[in-house]
Automatic annotation (TrEMBL):
PANTHER family: GLUTAMYL-TRNA GLN AMIDOTRANSFERASE SUBUNIT B MITOCHONDRIAL AND PROKARYOTIC PET112-RELATED, GLUTAMYL-TRNA(GLN) AMIDOTRANSFERASE SUBUNIT B, MITOCHONDRIAL. The keyword ATP-binding applies. It catalyses: L-glutamyl-tRNA(Gln) + L-glutamine + ATP + H2O = L-glutaminyl-tRNA(Gln) + L-glutamate + ADP + phosphate + H(+); L-aspartyl-tRNA(Asn) + L-glutamine + ATP + H2O = L-asparaginyl-tRNA(Asn) + L-glutamate + ADP + phosphate + 2 H(+). Belongs to the GatB/GatE family. GatB subfamily. Pfam families: GatB_N, GatB_Yqey. This is Aspartyl/glutamyl-tRNA(Asn/Gln) amidotransferase subunit B. PROSITE patterns: GATB (PS01234). It comes from Sphingomonas floccifaciens. Residues 338-485 form the Asn/Gln amidotransferase domain. SMART domains: GatB_Yqey. It comes from the Bacteria. Allows the formation of correctly charged Asn-tRNA(Asn) or Gln-tRNA(Gln) through the transamidation of misacylated Asp-tRNA(Asn) or Glu-tRNA(Gln) in organisms which lack either or both of asparaginyl-tRNA or glutaminyl-tRNA synthetases. The reaction takes place in the presence of glutamine and ATP through an activated phospho-Asp-tRNA(Asn) or phospho-Glu-tRNA(Gln).
Length: 487
């Protein structure tokens, strides 16, 4: 495993190393909840997406949702993890007001997915981060404390929603590595389609485990900061919690194994409760659910349904001449990659297309406050524009003008070129006449150029292009100017 970080905290007693593990809860994209047929739409009115199973009414029995299991298996395959053909659900027993069953159905001893790995790039280096397991479990409901002055209300819409808990190894050693891991994991989930990755909506959140040690020592006592809902906040938690632990240890204190919460307004973590161990939850096999047994046909169907994943797509782009940087940008979000793939399918050169998307298209979308899915220009239209540049119909500057009109009107580039007379001219006679006029108007510069001041060549090019309204073919202008100036 390549070490991608030498991140250290400088304390009064020397350097400290940070050890980080993430437990990511990802809501499974499915047609219903894990053990019921209730819907899972975000933003619905409280308690409108609750079945009798979710509300734990007497006599209600859970039935596993095949699609939830399928999506978790596909996710495991995407990170090259071991898929366990035999797995089992366990009851995790605890009381909380938004947990009507009095227990959570999860997997402790026999998870659906075993060990896997992710490769992340940090500061130009690649590091492999281990994934210990992915288990499937049901979410709890939500307490609402701001609806009444003296009481808390309970919303059970999330009760029973299917979650994948993706548990990493404690392989990360810096905030940057933790951020890169979470970013890469989110990207893979969205490519696979097993989770939408909308962290701001709570469909993906991370519990951040942090400890510190002197380099080379045994692992220290870790704390767990719960429900962190952005990559930036995860990195901030790592940094602030590590600094806090170093300060405690260097002042003679000890780190308590506990659960903490992050306050983004103050950029601090605070203690919530002591951290329970597995035996505190009295795990035992759920008596209402048979073990899950997966056959080869199901696994083959899961594998066959996987799309081209970010790393493979990135390698394919680079093989087509796309720079590593552009390939990384284009594969970071699945929607961007799909848009770019559609552009390539139209027959556009990969390098030319990637440069145009990274500069022109992204720049325009940023100005408009839109993302790639809202682009006013389709991949087909972009391909037509780039083809007009490639065949000499448009110069680079004319293409920029046409693109701006495309953004405003949605018209195809060929129509804009015809309607506005923006076609580039390669008519040598017309260009030679303009060059002669430019040279006649600038005798001093002509004399200087012929006297050895060759830097003035750009001046003559600019004057010619200006005189022709930017419509002259730059290559033809250069060739004809060289001849005229030499005479």
């Amino acid at each position: 495993m390549t070490e991608a970080s030498t991140y250290r905290i400088q304390g009064q007693t020397g350097e400290w190393e940070v050890v980080i593990g993430l437990e990511v809860h990802a809501q499974v994209t499915s047609n219903a909840k894990l053990f019921s047929g209730a819907p899972t739409a975000f933003g619905a009115e409280p308690n409108t997406q609750v079945s009798l199973v979710d509300a734990a009414m007497p006599g209600m029995l859970p039935v596993p949702n095949r699609e939830c299991i399928r999506q978790a298996v596909r996710t495991g395959m995407a990170i090259e993890a071991q898929i366990n053909k035999w797995s089992r659900f366990d009851r995790k027993n605890y009381f909380y007001a938004d947990l009507p069953q009095g227990y959570q159905i999860s997997q402790l001893y026999h998870p659906l997915v075993g060990e896997g790995k992710l490769e992340v790039d940090v500061d130009g280096q690649t590091k492999t981060i281990g994934v210990e397991r992915i288990h499937v479990e049901q979410d709890a409901g939500k307490l609402m404390h701001d609806q009444h002055p003296t009481m808390s209300y309970v919303d059970l819409n999330r009760s029973g929603v299917a979650l994948m808990e993706i548990v990493s190894r404690p392989d990360m050693r810096s905030p940057a590595e933790a951020g890169a891991y979470l970013t890469k994991l989110r990207s893979i989930l969205r490519y696979v389609g097993s989770c939408d990755g909308n962290m701001d909506q709570g469909s993906m959140r991370a519990d951040v485990n942090v400890s510190v040690r002197k380099p080379g020592d045994e692992f220290g006592t870790r704390t767990e900061t719960k429900n962190v809902n952005s990559v930036r906040f995860v990195m901030a938690v790592v940094e602030q919690e590590a600094l806090r632990q170093v300060e405690v240890l260097e002042s003679g204190g000890t780190i308590v194994q506990e659960t903490r919460l992050y306050d983004p307004d103050k950029n601090t973590t605070r203690s919530m409760r002591s951290k329970e161990d597995a035996h505190d939850y009295r795990y035992f096999p759920d008596p209402d659910l048979l073990p899950l047994e997966l056959d080869d046909a199901f696994l083959e169907e899961c594998r066959a349904s996987l799309p081209e994943l970010p790393d493979a797509k990135r390698a394919r782009y680079e093989a087509q001449g796309v720079t590593p940087y552009n390939a990384g940008v284009l594969t970071a979000e699945v929607e961007t990659a799909r848009w770019f793939d559609a552009l390539l399918e139209a027959g556009v050169d990969g390098k030319q297309a990637s440069n145009w998307v990274a500069s022109e298209l992204f720049g325009a979308l940023n100005r408009l406050g839109k993302d790639i899915t809202e682009s006013p220009v389709s991949p087909k239209q972009a391909a037509e524009l780039l083809a007009l540049v490639a065949d000499g119909t448009l110069s680079g500057s004319l293409a920029k003008q046409v693109f701006e009109v495309m953004l405003e009107t949605g018209d195809d580039p060929a129509k804009i070129v015809d309607d506005r007379g923006l076609k580039q001219t390669s008519d040598t006679g017309a260009i030679e006449a303009v060059i002669a006029e430019v040279l006649a108007k600038n005798p001093n510069q002509l004399e200087q150029y012929r006297g050895g001041k060759e830097a003035l060549f750009g001046f003559f090019v600019g004057q010619t292009m200006k005189a022709m309204g930017g419509k002259a073919n730059p290559g033809v202008v250069n060739d004809l100017l060289k001849k005229a100036l030499a005479g």
